[in-house]
Amino acid sequence: MADGVDVINIREEEIAIVIMDYLKRKKFLRTLSEFERESGVNLEIYGEEIGYIRRLLLDGQWEDIESILSPLHSEGDVDVDSIRFMIRRQKFLELVHSQALSDAVMELVENLKPLEDKCSPDEFSRLCYCISMSNLSKHPYFKHWSPHKGRLATFARIQPMLEVLYKSVHHGQNLENLPNPSRMEPQRLVTLLRQAIVYQISKAHGTKGSPQPLGKEVSLSIFEDFQIPVTLTL
User: Fold this and answer.
1) Percent of the chain with pLDDT over 70
2) Among 224, 184, 222, CA closest to 11
């Protein structure tokens, strides 16, 4: 290997994060969630408590989340009931989505109505209107909504509040040895693949001589190593 290096070790966690970044950018959100679950690596760094709540939310474990929120107290501008509203809102929308309308009505009346002041009048009216929808996607506001997208969006909205309640996103977790995704450049997987192809082209040129130019833009497969076509060699 070049420069006297015999072995290059690449951290498995970093490989996983690069792949997950690609999945997120392509909006393969369900696949991303399953990849996180199976790899045990998160695309972002969360504290222990917040990471646990996130996993429960992505799994739809509503009662477990309510149990965790139960002993928490509001702090500063953060109202625990606002978090409860967001969780129950997501649960309600999923019930409507699955056409479990009797359960949805019960959730709306018994659990969301008492927290009506935690949202705008327009938002609560939208939720009430959902009951009459035969298909949630027909509602203009929820046209692109899906259960999994909704769960991710819900976590994004409650995460800043959870960080205040738990004092720090990194509370109780040793992050020294964890890979830091914030250091990663955008589109890292695609960049690495392009760099690999450029290296293969350069290596092929070094062994085959100087070829004719391939053009300003060219599509090459990543399924196999680059080889200089005979017709391009001098």
Assistant:
1) 82
2) 184
Residue 195: other Cβ atoms inside 10 A:
10
- Coil/strand/helix, residue 190: helix
Count how many Cα atoms sit within 13 Å of the Cα of residue 157 in the half-sphere of its side chain.
Answer: 18
Mean pLDDT over residues 145-149, rounded? 91
User: Which residues, other chains included, contact 66 with Cβ-Cβ below 8 Å and sequence gap of 6+?
Assistant: 84, 87
Of 113-127, 160-174, 176-190, the one with minimum mean pLDDT is 160-174
What number of residues does the chain have?
A: 234
Query: Concatenated DSSP letters for 149-191?
Result: HHHHHHHHHHHHHHHHHTS-TTTT---TTS--GGGSPTTHHHH
Task: Please state, in angstroms and rounded to a whole number, the distance separating the CA atoms of residues 217 and 111.
Answer: 58
Residue the block writes with tokens 């300003």: 216
Those residues with Cβ within 8 angstroms of residue 172's Cβ, 6 or more apart along the chain or in another chain:
47, 48, 49
Write down the number of H helices and E strands in the chain: 9, 0
Indicate the residue type of 86.
M
Amino acid identity for residue 220 in this structure: L
* Structure token digits, residue 130: 């959902």
Measured distance CA(59)–CA(215) in Å, rounded: 49
- Does the structure show a pLDDT above 70 at 179? no
Q: How confident is the model over 64-102, as pLDDT tens digits?
A: 999 999 988 888 778 999 999 999 999 999 999 999 999
Running DSSP on this structure, what letter comes out for residue 12?
H
pTM confidence score: 0.71
- Give the mean pLDDT of 134-139: 86
Here the tokens at position 122 are: 């327009």
Q: Which residue has the higher pLDDT, 64 or 43?
A: 64
